[in-house]
Specification:
Elements lengths: L17 H6 L4 E4 L3 H15 L14 E4 L1 H32 L3 H9 L19 H15 L5 H13 L2 H10 L6 E5 L14 H11 L3 E5 L15 E3 L3 H5 L4 E4 L11 H7 L4 E4 L6 H6 L3 E3 L6
Parallel strand pairs: 1-2, 3-4, 3-6, 4-5, 6-7, 7-8
Helix pairs in contact: 3-5, 3-6, 5-6
Bound molecules: nicotinamide-adenine-dinucleotide (NAD).
Nicotinamide-adenine-dinucleotide (NAD) binds next to helix 3 and helix 5.
Length: 304
């Protein structure tokens, strides 16, 4: 025996639920050319594989995929690239829905019930961000490039995502016409809820463009404060609650789908605004409730 072995064991943990994802995995991927190393990894993972540590202990044991080193690494990149592409796909469909008068939330429901497609990651909005999707999709594009292959589909997923980040700006211009001198409030700043992570957040692109057009920008995020003053937020007044945010705004944009944004006092917020407009960048809020509270509601791909 003797000698060292290498195992590639990709993790698929989401920020904000890493502990849950560790104990409740969909699969475990082990890449190595050493049978001994694979056996040791199986032993290490035994309580997780048997679901001993899972929330639902009645589930079948966790599938273990044993591969060579390169394939294990490719599983990781391909998983993230697929999910990012799935989001860009539904965002592309949303933009077509907007033009032909369809509602992407109904379309997503209709296609998601097809078990070959699945309903997850089909929520149209202002695009994906964070540290994992952008990094892994570009790494895969560059690796392909290094080996003489142009990953056209992945490049398109990135292009669609960049364009999608400015969809809220397009909607603001349709409603408010001139943005110079107007005040826009951003509900949420982080790339997704339950994290304070602003890395590659769609909000940053939106802020840059609103600032370029002379718009006054305010924001409220449950985990991002003015004192934090992160890179890219120097042109933003960060408020401490949603009502202060609404005060004096010509429109609000829901940027992050924080759960607590579903139960704000929208009637009170509408009264504090110059012009109660809500651009729902995640199709997250209840349109009827917002309209009853006095808002003009504009979703993504919902022909509003
Ligand atoms: N590369 C790494 O270093 C690394 C580290 C940890 C995890 N990961 C992997 O990266 C993946 C992404 O993790 P994450 O923490 O960025 O978060 P995540 O998977 O929760 O979200 C990623 C992006 O998808 C969007 N999204 C989430 N649900 C959606 C839906 N239903 N419809 C449309 N868009 C949706 C989010 O807004 C976000 O922009 C993990 O699943 C994991 O496999 C990678």
């Amino acid at each position: 025996m003797g000698g060292e072995s290498v195992v590639s064991n990709p993790e698929f943990l989401r920020e904000g639920c890493a502990v849950y994802d560790t104990f409740n995995p969909d699969r475990i991927v082990l890449g190595s050319n050493s049978q001994r190393a694979i056996a040791m990894m199986r032993e290490l993972y035994a309580p997780i594989i048997s679901r001993e540590m899972a929330e639902d202990k009645s589930l079948p044991t966790v599938p273990v995929v044993v591969t060579d080193l390169s394939s294990a690494e490719m599983v990781k990149y391909a998983s993230n690239a697929f999910l990012a592409t799935k989001i860009s796909f539904i965002n592309e469909i949303a933009n077509i829905c907007d033009r032909v008068g369809a509602d992407v939330t109904q379309v997503a429901k209709g296609i998601g019930l097809d078990s070959r497609i699945g309903s997850k990651f089909l929520q149209a909005g202002i695009g994906w961000g964070g540290s994992c999707f952008p990094k892994d999709v570009s790494a895969l594009i560059h690796t392909a490039d290094d080996y003489g292959y142009e990953a056209q589909l992945l490049k398109a997923a990135v292009t669609v995502n960049h364009r999608q980040r400015l969809i809220a700006l397009e909607k603001l211009q349709q409603v408010l016409k001139i943005l110079k001198g107007k005040t826009v409030g951003l509900l949420g700043l982080t790339f997704k809820p339950d994290t304070d992570d602003m890395r590659d957040a769609p909000a940053l692109d939106l802020i840059e463009q609103l600032h370029r057009l002379g718009t006054k920008i305010k924001a409220f995020d449950p985990l991002v404060s003015q004192s934090g003053m992160r890179h890219g937020l120097s042109n933003v007044i960060v408020e401490t609650d949603a009502e202060r945010l609404a005060d004096g705004c010509d429109a609000l944009v829901l940027v992050t789908d924080w759960k607590q944004f579903r139960s704000l006092d929208y009637a009170k917020m509408a009264k504090l605004m110059n012009n109660p407009v809500m651009i729902d960048g995640r199709n997250f809020l209840d349109q009827e409730m917002l309209e009853a509270a006095g808002f003009r509601y504009v979703g993504i791909g919902r022909c509003s």
